[in-house]
Amino acid sequence: WGCVLGQSFGGFCLATYLSAAERSPEICLFTGGIPPMGARTAERYVYDATWERVAERNRRYYAKYPNDVAQVKRIVRALLREKIPLPSGGVLTARRFLQSGMGLGSSPSSFAGLHGLVRSAFVDLSPPDDSPTFSRTFLKKIDSHIPFDDNPIYFLLHEAIYCDGPRRSPSDWAAHRALRNRLDAPPAP
Description:
It is a single chain. This protein is mainly alpha-helical. The chain has helices at 9-20, 42-64, 68-81, 94-98, 110-119, 136-145, 152-157, 174-184; strands at 3-6, 27-30, 84-85, 91-92. The termini are far apart.
């Protein structure tokens, strides 16, 4: 019977359905979100690969925009000193700002978009001082660029969808563990 389309999280749902249903649809289309299957710790491999890709994208971004290194450091220093209120009522922290790179690689213009965001951070681009003033343009862009409050289920279920083990097997914060392992590893020669 019928046809089913699985996109992103829907692909994970479709794979779960197909593995449990007695009768499956005649046609199943996966356009994204194909889960890893069969590995005892699939989520760990997913995040190890993800962190490697994040590092590669960061290297490419900073090779293209080397002056952004100092600007990003200035933004982070300012946010470590003080959390900044966002126009929507949220708060901009250094950690939230650093998540702005999530879109790198999503489209050909993603590098230019992030560069524009970074360059618009302060009202004045003069040499660093103790208390730079964030521009309203920057704060509004951050507010719409990382709208965590718009998709709460994504953040609740994102890691759990990679679990492929016995019932009730936790992910045990696999993304954080993969990052910790990466940071704790000795530098490559």
